[in-house]
Amino acid sequence: MSGRSSATTMTALAVALVLIALSIVTWRQSRTRESLAGLDHLRRQISLVQAEQIELERRIQLLESRGRVVAEARERLGMRTPRSEEIVFLPGDGR
To answer: What is the residue-wise DSSP string for 10-78?
Structure first.
């Protein structure tokens, strides 16, 4: 019976090792899925921030545009664009 008991023990050990290996593989796959989900979330956040940056750059360009600055200067400060006869060039050293 010793041979039969040894074979049963070996079979039980092999089954246990297979179950342990399957558990490890399952755990690793779940960790990988969690990591991939986190990566996907970060990529979506990056995309949103990039879209926001593009929108802010567009708004800055609009706010800095000559047409808007001239209109705001006229409205807020009462300024106007000088006529050609009002422009005087002063001599300088050319720097």
So the answer is: HHHHHHHHHHHHHHHHHHHHHHHHHHHHHHHHHHHHHHHHHHHHHHHHHHHHHHH-HHHHHHHHHHHH-
> Which amino acid belongs to residue 90?
L
The CA-atom distances, in angstroms, between 83 and each of 78, 86, 88, 89 are 15, 5, 11, 13
Task: Please write the tens of the pLDDT for every residue from 12-61.
Answer: 999 999 999 999 999 999 999 999 999 999 999 999 999 999 999 999 99
pTM, 2 dp: 0.57
86 DSSP 8-state letter: G
**What is the helix (H) or strand (E) element at residue 2, kind and residue range?**
helix 2-64
Burial track 34-64 (b if 16+ CB lie within 10 A, e otherwise): eeeeeeeeeeeeeeeeeeeeeeeeeeeeeee
